[in-house]
Design a protein that fits this description.
Elements (H helix, E strand, L loop, with lengths): L1 E7 L16 E3 L2 E3 L5 E3 L3 H16 L5 E6 L5 H17 L3 E4 L6 H12 L6 E4 L1 H10 L7 E2 L3 H8 L20 H10 L7 E3 L4 E5 L2 E6 L13 H14 L4 H19 L7 H6 L1 H7 L1 H5 L4
Parallel strand pairs: 1-5, 1-6, 6-7, 7-8
Antiparallel strand pairs: 2-3, 3-4, 9-10, 10-11
Length: 296
């Protein structure tokens, strides 16, 4: 089983461990948890989870479990997730985990990583957003299998001194021409895994430390203005990995599928990511060979 874990910007949303092995679903623009609670799919972890669930359903892949908690930046909900993972990982023995928005607590991150490394079979580890930041800050970023940064986050990973993207030094320019240099620098300092999706107007697929592919078509510029499209890409990669698609292929397929979805939906800058996610299943089914290639 694959596990998606992250937080929601709702101070009243308690940790929900029952959803880890129970079925969640997506209806309209809401993520419906096993107890019937509806979480709006706007951006962030909810958008990632909804994308992964719908993509897995479309392709008949095993559905991921969800471990969610409310956290508005104080760290309380995130620490509950960290503690639950440390206690339950050995019994759960997941095939993989996708970490998303979690408060960057170095001590708890390291406890979770130690618990993961103690498992008899180490799961595949993907990280985006806040958890990617704490993974880099811990000095153990290269213990992960996949990061999904945008260009600004790649510059942060390349800056060995920056504790947060806000403090990335200005000479590390977040521009597409600089991707190879930023990648080399991040790798040299051990601040990223060997596989990444660098999201931008061109998506760079990094496999085994090298740029293996560039995905730039179809190009839908409005996608750059829509919040949550990066979460959508990470959700697609999660679904493909949960379905057993090899890592490099899953990364490229995620970037391509997001672009094909945008092309089919013809969004404007005012389009909400939930509208795109809702239309995902028919696009995935119609374009399966184009997306997954030999893995279809």
């Amino acid at each position: 089983m694959w596990l998606i874990t992250g937080t929601l910007p709702d101070p009243d949303f308690a940790i929900h461990p029952d959803a880890v092995q129970a079925r969640s679903r997506v209806e309209s623009n809401a993520l419906i948890l096993p107890d019937g609670r509806a979480v709006p799919v706007q951006r962030g972890t909810a958008a990632l989870a909804a994308t992964a669930l719908l993509a897995c359903e479309a392709y008949g892949f095993p559905l991921p479990g969800l471990l969610l908690a409310g956290d508005t930046g104080q760290g309380t909900g995130s620490r509950r997730i960290y503690a639950w993972l440390v206690t339950h990982l050995a019994k759960l023995a997941p095939a993989g985990l996708t970490f998303h928005y979690l408060f960057p607590d170095l001590d708890w991150h390291n406890r979770v990583l130690m618990a993961l490394q103690a498992l008899e079979r180490k799961p595949m580890l993907a990280a985006d957003a806040g958890f990617m930041y704490v993974a880099k800050m811990s000095g153990y970023a290269d213990a992960y299998d996949l990061f999904t940064p945008d260009l600004g986050e790649l510059a942060f990973l390349a800056d060995e001194k920056a504790p947060h993207p806000f403090y990335t030094r200005g000479f590390l320019l977040a521009e597409e021409d600089n991707v190879p240099e930023l990648l080399q620098r991040a790798r040299r300092h051990g601040n990223c895994p060997s596989h990444m999706i660098v999201k931008g107007s061109t998506d760079y697929i990094v496999c085994n430390g090298e740029i293996a592919a560039r995905v730039s078509q179809p190009s839908v510029p409005a996608m750059e203005c829509i919040g949550g499209t990066g979460d959508l890409v990470t959700g697609l990669a999660t679904a493909f990995l949960a379905g057993g698609v090899p890592l490099c292929r899953a990364a490229e397929a995620a970037a391509r599928a997001a672009r094909l979805l945008a092309w089919e939906c013809a969004p404007t800058p005012s389009t909400q990511v939930g509208e795109l996610i809702r239309r995902l299943p028919p696009v995935l089914r119609a374009r399966k060979k184009e997306i997954l290639g030999d893995s279809a």
